[in-house]
Specification:
This protein is an alpha/beta fold. The protein has nine helices and eight strands.
Length: 234
């Protein structure tokens, strides 16, 4: 029989929420055109998708939520500017355009919820499951999830920017065990990063599932989900 869990824990970025890719591609293509770099929205979307796939590795060894606000901004400024660079935009303009978009991104204006999230959370709640967050995120995590209509699903929030510990440190997972009031054997963690989420949870002694919507790890032996609605049978 499949293992029965009482508590389901979720990563946030790349697992529950993502950038609004259509809107972001429009903004990038429009700004690139201002400086003579004519690219289609589809091409911009492909470039930005490549960057999104690279983000977990870029964040590896970079405890962003524990950095100063200035250091965090510098990281994200370079990340957003890289999209423009890859579209052929010169460095000065790439940085200027990234600055324009960065505040909107931090404020949640360019964040959206994956289509499978709300149905999956509704189904888990209907089964009486306890739900929690473990995220490498700034202290505004709960506020942002509230703005996106998700915060009410969760019983507790373990956020690195508040706790001062980032995944894959096992202590952040142990903090979730304490918050849940359950045994670690009853809990499963779902995230999109092999290093931070899967290796982190397993290192703490917790079961973990990789959410792999793009099937990037199809050849991996890791337990994977292609869609969070698959949790209905787990």
């Amino acid at each position: 029989m499949p293992k029965e869990y009482s508590t389901y824990l979720f990563d946030v970025g790349g697992t529950l929420i993502k950038f609004d890719e259509r809107r972001r591609a429009v903004l990038y293509a429009e700004r690139a055109a201002r400086v003579g770099c004519g690219v289609s929205q589809a091409h911009a979307a492909r470039v930005l998708q490549e960057l999104d796939y690279e983000l977990p590795e870029r964040q590896r060894g970079a405890p962003l939520s524990l950095w100063s606000a200035a250091a965090q901004r510098a990281f994200w400024l370079d990340f957003w500017a890289e999209g423009f660079r890859r579209l052929g935009v010169a460095e000065t303009d790439a940085v200027a355009f990234a600055n324009e978009l960065l505040d909107a991104a931090n404020g949640g204006d360019l964040q959206t919820v994956f289509d499978d999230v709300t149905p999956a959370l509704d189904a888990l709640r209907a089964r009486g499951k306890q739900l929690g967050i473990i995220s490498n995120f700034s202290p505004n995590c709960q506020t942002l999830l509230g703005e996106l209509g998700l915060a009410h699903y969760f019983d507790f929030f373990i956020v690195s920017g508040i706790l001062g510990i980032e995944k894959p440190d096992p202590r952040i997972f142990h903090a979730a065990v304490a918050a849940a009031g359950k045994t670690i054997q009853e809990m499963v963690y779902i995230g999109d990063s092999v290093h931070h989420d899967i290796e982190g949870a397993r290192g703490a002694g917790m079961d973990a599932l990789l959410i792999d919507r793009a099937q990037r790890y199809a050849d991996s032996a890791l337990p994977r989900l292609g869609d969070l609605r698959e949790l209905s049978v787990i």
